[in-house]
Amino acid sequence: MKKVLKRTIVILLIFLIVSFVIAYVITSKEMAKSFGRGDYPDKNKSATWFYDHYENEYPREEVSFKSGDNTLKGFIYGMDNDKGLIVFAHGIGSGHEMYLSFITQLVDCGWRVFAYDCTGSGYSEGDGTKGLAQSVIDLDNALTYAESDARLNIFDKFVLGHSWGGYAAAAVLNFDHDVKACVTMSGYNTPYEELSETCEVRFGGWSKPLNPVVWLYNKIEFGSNSSISAVDGINKSGIPVLVLHGDDDDVIDYNGASVIAHKDEITNPNAEYKVYDEVGRNGHNSYFYTPEYKKYKEEVLTPKSDELEKKYGEDIPDDEYISFINMIDKKLYNSTNDELVELIDDFFSKNL
């Protein structure tokens, strides 16, 4: 009986180890797919205005800096401005030019803005974006570069980011940079929390056994940087921090992995909060919408998009999709909520 029990235990352990290894290999492959390159979209298939639309009115200077083995491209906007320096971190999936309407409005407020494309994104090097912890590593290196550049280090520094960059803006406060204030928009608290939340959305109850594998993958990929916490950064710094989030965010759950969900753990007395709760402008990025664009989207774009999806599913022919893009009112599409810009401008200005 003892031999049988021992043999059974050994077989069970081997089965568990093999299962874990298989799960890790599968998870690694899925992560590699999820964190592939975030290239800029084909301009014919995007309604976003990229830099060629803005370059006459908003000249920029290109710089580069290292983040690990990769060289990242950065851009300085508002070279004639001297109000202060905003270092901007973008969301995952593409580069900073997706936010140019927002960035140029900050430039109009008198700020010099240093925006860059993260690892594996936009104009920067990298086979992929690597993972959710990469954004804070890149922002740390961007701030280090800003501190060495005479065009940037003469100003008070402020950090601002959205989503992947929203996490980075708060998490980078764990590092030793002289940042005067921070605005974190739609950010998550730690990479593992957001990875676990995403797995739960995709796989439901089946995600629970994957959590140890996801944790290990994140740990192996990023080592000591794998668990940097946005809340810890906010508390450690003690500087003014504004946390923004939509209460219907379907990417980073308002009540889940988000920074704002950890509000009770934030002990920094200089932390402030803004919750967007207007239906249609309370999502992951819809608080960027103007009221006019919200209405236009609801009445024109969504019905047309639904019509195409009903007709073709996910395989919309290129000519049909390009025709849809061409009919979009680009001025409305590329507008940014003035109240959001004013909120950030006022918050940073009072902390100069």
Topology diagram in text:
Blueprint: H1 2-34, H2 51-54, E1 60-67, E2 70-77, E3 85-89, H3 100-108, E4 112-116, H4 134-148, E5 157-162, H5 164-171, E6 179-185, H6 191-203, H7 211-222, H8 230-237, E7 241-246, E8 271-276, H9 291-312, H10 318-327, H11 330-333, H12 338-349
Parallel strand pairs: 3-4, 3-5, 5-6, 6-7, 7-8
Antiparallel strand pairs: 1-2, 2-4
Task: Characterise the protein shown here.
It is built from 12 helices and 8 strands. The chain folds into 2 domains: 51-290 and 337-349, Alpha/Beta hydrolase fold, catalytic domain (Rossmann fold); 295-335, no CATH class. Strands 1-2-4-3-5-6-7-8 form an 8-stranded mixed sheet, with helices on both faces. By secondary structure, the chain is α/β, with parallel strands linked by helices. The protein has helices at residues 2-34, 51-54, 100-108, 134-148, 164-171, 191-203, 211-222, 230-237, 291-312, 318-327, 330-333, 338-349; strands at residues 60-67, 70-77, 85-89, 112-116, 157-162, 179-185, 241-246, 271-276. Helices cover 43% and strands 14% of the residues. The protein is globular, with a radius of gyration of 22 Å. The longest helix is centred in the first third of the chain and has 33 residues, at 2-34.
